Amino acid sequence: MRSVLAAATLTAALGLVPVGTSQAAACVWQKTVWELPPTTDRGTLYASDGGRYGVGVTGTRSPTWPYDYKTKQGTLWDNGKVVLRLPSITPVDVNAAGLIAGNGRFDGTLKGVTVTRTGTTAALPMDPSWDHSSADAINNAGDIAGTASVGSKLILVVWPASAPGTYRELAVPETRSLTATDIDEQGRIIGYTDTEGFVTDTSGQWHTLAAQGPNGMGTPWAIRDGRVVGSMDNDTSYAAAEWNDQGSLVRTIRNGAISAKAIGGAGTVGGVGFVKSTPRAVLWRDGVVADPLSGVSDYFTLKAISTDEKTLIGTDASTPAQYDCV
Q1: Which residues lie below 8 Å from residue 89, measured CB to CB, with a gap of 6+?
Q2: pTM
Q3: Burial of 96 by CB count in 10 Å (0-12 exposed, 13-18 middle, 19+ buried)?
Q4: Which of 45, 94, 228, 322 shows the greatest Cβ crowding within 10 Å of its Cβ?
Q5: Per-residue pLDDT tens for 88-110?
């Protein structure tokens, strides 16, 4: 977020930012804490398939400020249980088959990799001209989106599951930075550069996400069936937002909404917004609050919503956790 969010936080602390019109909550949310490996005391979930699997890191807390990780390893969870640790791989995403997309160093070069749930690791193919590559997201089909570089040139790459051992480069405007954040089941990719958010359609065509206001920029975090959600901020305001796969703005979500992070199977959007003076997890439908998640911890960071929308998955107070509708 830009500096406007610092001002927004102060404004909210004064109680001046409402969360918006809320419907009655449909669920009582019951928390289940995920397992941590022996000798570790913290974990962070990076991504989940929205059901069985999750990936992130686990380790020990530093005893000194800022109390971040002292040691950590990549970790795969299966139904909340630790099934694999990855000492030399940084996981970034996982699909419904338990296939992990991540990054590691091979022969001195940073490369995107896949890791099966049993630990079999394989580097993604690279063009000889690339300096390095990076995997950023995977869908349930096994398609992987990521980036590569040749000198200062950045390339958007997809490694298709239907053609193992191959890759496809997608056209990218000239940019100083490039990150893919998600890929949907049809192969659309979302991400951002230093100046704009983007979505590629099913043909691989790049579309800039529409933004509003002075120096406005959309930053997408999740895509499902061509529906894109994220944040949109500018020099004077902030909001959560939704776009279509052509980059057109469908709606902004204001009244305290900060950013949308996930989409459920029935269209519910989850993210973070101010509830009174506290930024916390919230669910929206059609741009208004569907559930303020008042029974969910203020420290819960939402990463995924299950297809049936009855499970919320994320990190809660330095431990991966899920909340189930009961």
Answers
A1: 74, 100, 102, 103, 104, 113, 115, 121
A2: 0.91
A3: middle
A4: 228
A5: 999 999 999 999 999 999 889 99
